[in-house]
Automatic annotation (TrEMBL):
Gene Ontology CC, one term: plasma membrane
Family to which this protein belongs: Belongs to the CobD/CbiB family.
Keyword Transmembrane: yes
GO aspect biological process, one term: cobalamin biosynthetic process
Keywords recorded for this protein, A-Z: Cell membrane, Cobalamin biosynthesis, Membrane, Transmembrane, Transmembrane helix
General function of this protein: Converts cobyric acid to cobinamide by the addition of aminopropanol on the F carboxylic group.
Xref: Pfam families: CobD_Cbib
PANTHER family: COBALAMIN BIOSYNTHESIS PROTEIN CBIB (PTHR34308:SF1)
Transmembrane segments: 48-69, 76-96, 291-312
Protein name: Probable cobalamin biosynthesis protein CobD
Source organism per UniProt: Halomicrobium mukohataei (strain ATCC 700874 / DSM 12286 / JCM 9738 / NCIMB 13541) (Haloarcula mukohataei)
Length: 313
């Protein structure tokens, strides 16, 4: 079946390569396309709204056209192209590697750990203690499970299911799924670059990202609970989540804190009180392993779901 093969292709590329080379990474190209929006505008919210509509749609159409073009030669070539696009739209292994590296450095070179944290979390690392740096790395791993993996995988699966429901032939259904994954990745990229309170142009991208990531964040939390073999962590985490400014990121972070019995915090912003202490190096690394297992479950769920609805005959 073609759709499960596409997901497995993306997973294999993630295991083998983690990320495309930076110079050839389409997400880097996307970032360069978004950068001109990041300046003062007379009507910033209008500009942001237009960007939030146009940039993800352009990315989705470009990927869908690529898959359809490949499909003119072979359905399997279209599946390979869709798998490559899904690989580019997803990201987990490199982020987990960065998190492990940052956590390890907190025991040997705190300044280096603070420096490497900048690649993971958008916060001032200068005043953070070793425990707070580890907390930030663990939080980033949990949040990126939802944003960087579950969301584009879910969009791909949804596109394939919609294509099947509409009785589309294999290649258009693959194009719809791959285009959906690219659309989600572009939405998340816009939010990560523009979605700050200090940037009025980012209001629409941030609100769109909140809506798009609502379900993936909760699926990510479920996967973390399953990976930790602690379904009750979902219940234990619920009381803390209202204190997290984001309507979504608190779910995977909070469930991870509950599952491992540690406190995760962003000083002055929120605290996820899974325990009395910030995570030790050992527990931090164990938490990252839980996120890695949850990522494997996400791929497996995507394969099983596309196969269950018939894949693409």
């Amino acid at each position: 079946m073609i759709a499960p093969f596409t997901v497995l292709t993306a997973a294999a590329l993630e295991l083998l390569a983690a990320e495309p080379p930076a110079r050839a990474h389409p997400v880097a190209w996307l970032g360069r396309a978004v950068a001109p929006l990041d300046r003062a505008w007379r009507r910033p919210r209008l500009v942001g709204a237009v960007g939030a509509l146009a940039v993800p749609l352009t990315a989705a159409v470009a990927v869908a056209v690529l898959v359809v073009a490949a499909g003119r030669a072979s359905t399997w070539l279209a599946a390979a192209a869709a798998g490559g696009a899904l690989f580019v739209a997803t990201s987990l292994r490199m982020l987990l590697s960065e998190a492990r590296s940052t956590i390890g450095a907190t025991s040997t070179d705190l300044d280096a750990a603070r420096g490497s944290l900048r690649a993971l979390a958008g916060r001032d690392a200068g005043p953070l203690s070793a425990g707070q740096v580890r907390s930030a790395a663990v939080e980033s791993a949990a949040e990126n499970l939802a944003d960087g993996l579950v969301a584009p995988l879910a969009a791909f699966v949804a596109g394939v299911v919609v294509g099947q429901a509409a009785a589309l032939s294999p290649v258009p259904a693959l194009a719809l799924g791959a285009g959906g994954a690219a659309w989600v990745k572009a939405v998340n990229t816009l939010d990560s670059m523009l979605g700050y309170r200090s940037k009025p142009v980012g209001w629409a991208p941030a609100r769109l990202d909140d809506a798009v990531m609502w379900l993936p964040a909760r699926i990510g939390a479920l996967l973390i609970a399953a990976a930790a073999r602690d379904p009750a962590a979902l219940r234990r985490a619920r009381p803390w989540l209202d204190g997290v400014p984001s309507p979504n990121s608190g779910w995977p972070m909070g469930v991870l804190a509950a599952a491992h019995g540690v406190r995760l915090e962003k000083p002055g912003v929120y605290a996820l009180d899974g325990g009395e202490q910030l995570p030790s190096t050992e527990i931090s690394l164990r938490s990252v392993r839980t996120v890695a297992v949850a990522g494997g479950l996400a791929y497996a769920l995507a394969v099983v779901t596309t196969a269950a609805v018939g894949g693409l005959p």
